User: What shape does this take?
Amino acid sequence: MIVVDPQTMSLEPVAPQASGLAHLVAAAEVGSEPPGDEIPLYVPRRKIYPQSVHGKFRNIKSAVLLVTLGIYYLLPFVRWDRGPSAPSQAVLIDFPGRRFYFFFIELWPQEVYYLTGLLIIAAIGLFLMNAVAGRVWCGYLCPQTVWTDLFFAIERLVEGDRREHMQRDGRAWTAATYARKGVKHFLWLMVAWWTGGAWVLYFADAPTLVKQLATGQAAFVAYASIAILTFTTYTLAGHMREQVCLYMCPWPRIQAALTDEYALNVTYRYDRGEPRCSAKKAEHLHAQGQSAGDCVDCLQCVHVCPTGVDIRGGANLGCIQCGLCIDACDNVMTKLGRATGLIAYDTDINIKQRIEGKKPFVRIVRIRTILYAAIIAVAGGIMIFTLATRDSEGISVIHDRNPMFVRMSDGGIRNAYTVRIVNKQLKYRDFMVDVAGLPSSTIDYLGLPPRADGRQWVSVGPDQTREVRVAVTDYNATPPAPSTTILFRLIDVHSGAVAEMRDHFFGP
Ligand code: SF4
Ligand code: SF4
Assistant: This one.
């Protein structure tokens, strides 16, 4: 641990027990451990009563909460016209139809690699956020944070702010206490139920499913999914809260390995705050020509913390970097007429810089941030390019295994195939299939009558696939090699669009 020597204002590595900051470590509500060998694997939970706070970061959190929850609850009802043959829901995971719809993007099962690309971008995006501003995902965007924040708001509405709530819980419970708790849990359950309800709407036409759910006609799996999500939301956001971040989530551990000294983290500027003392004592010390820190030890930063962390103890696994302690401390500093920013997004390097009389700096552009941004740009660019240029038709071919070939009475060698034709456009299309690689061959669609002009076309409905049986017969005077590579070409007879697939033609 590094502390400031108040006489020299230099950084000295000092063991916490021996330092003037030892009481900070002891005061940390999360992560404090009993001395000696008896370190429990699980610290008994102390109920946290986070106090409401006003300020810049609270406003950002509230805006993010409204936007993310608004998107989650309302997105299934956004309509998107895809014609009569496809569902008109903007975002839909259509398991029966084996499609994923996202506004103008429609993914087929064979395009699941786009999901891999999305996961890569999401993971590297998290790394990038971490490299720039620590656990900004945890503090503002993580569903656990967002829903817990909403549950806190409901709790304050019903049970009052920190002080009032603590006093009520500390007194003997009356009928009014039970009634309050009942209302709170009812509201929590309603939010949890809506959360589960909104989730299933992403898997079916939302207005139809809402009617089916209301009239008891929806599938059992819909009710079961809602029940499971209601339970998990109520439990995780209402009861487990910070325990999820401390014990269940792997991200705090991963980010500890990913972060570096330049990442901005919510930091208590101990160079300015220590030695902490009351405003009155500080005045007294100043009058005597002695130094006093700006921290007045009011504990406002601890009281607003949703995970119960005292950020003045230094970096802490329990800190989700939500910035609420910054707001709380800024409010205190403003009231005292002192400069804000005693707690701020900063780095330990900058604290050292200031102590040494050097200029602090922020270095966002670094090798790791450039690398992360480049990976995101490349993965995103490849996905956008392939999406923009992907074919709207496709062909897959499976050769018959038994028999591999048949010698016909007219001397030809025949191989049979199952051809699947894919039409990704939202209209009927006519296709023909030809084969390259066997100059003296013919191709027949088995069981498909020829058109009036004698040619055989295959009509495939909008956004559908169709399987046809195809026989390729080779009449070459010289029998083909035991295995000849051939090329199946699927041609849209109207637009001329082509898709190709290689397979083999077998002979004696
Ligand atoms: S809110 Fe600011 S002044 Fe009050 S204890 Fe926290 S750091 Fe010190
Ligand atoms: S210490 Fe501050 S930034 Fe960290 S979780 Fe608590 S309030 Fe949020």
